[in-house]
Amino acid sequence: MSMIRLTVPSGSLTPEGRKTVQRDLADALLRCEGAPDAAFFRAQLWSYLVELPEGAQTTAEDDAARFLIDVTVPQAVLSEEGRERLVAEATGIVLSAAGLVESDAPRVWVLVHEQPDGTWGAGGSIVRHADLVALARKQRAGE
Q1: pLDDT at site 69
Q2: Low-confidence ranges of the chain (pLDDT < 50)
Q3: Which is nearest to 114 in space by CA: 69, 77, 89?
Q4: What string of DSSP letters covers the chain?
Q5: How far is CA 11 from CA 4, 14, 16, 73, 87, in A?
Q6: CA 44 to each of CA 8, 11, 38, 102: distance values in angstroms, whole numbers, following the listed order
Q7: pLDDT tens across 50-63, in order?
């Protein structure tokens, strides 16, 4: 039950990158979380692509495209190693989707927001970390 919001300047992704970037980011997050590759978990990982209109993103220095990846996960789902891997993988995915090179990596920011247990609701109920762990175990066991 995680969420990714990628904010980009309009037209900054290649046509192919625009088609694939959201699923590629979702796949990376699931791997980094250690979640089972199961339909339930894939369906619960929501992804948003927010394209800013021309001129809506700039810095005090220049107007080169910048990319912001906001990742919201339940607290304790990502280990320190998982967060580091996610930042590296997500940066590479966005660079590729925009047709950029590794030296452009400072133009990609990844913010990981950990939602405290008991503050995430879905389907009209609070979803707790223990519930997700139990569900993951069932999915891994093939139930």
Answers
A1: 98
A2: none
A3: 77
A4: --EEEEEEETT-S-HHHHHHHHHHHHHHHHHHHT----HHHHHH-EEEEEEEPTTS---SS-----EEEEEEEETTSS-HHHHHHHHHHHHHHHHHHTT--GGGGGGEEEEEEEEPTT--EETTEE--HHHHHHHHHHHHHT-
A5: 20, 7, 12, 28, 23
A6: 23, 28, 10, 31
A7: 999 999 999 999 99
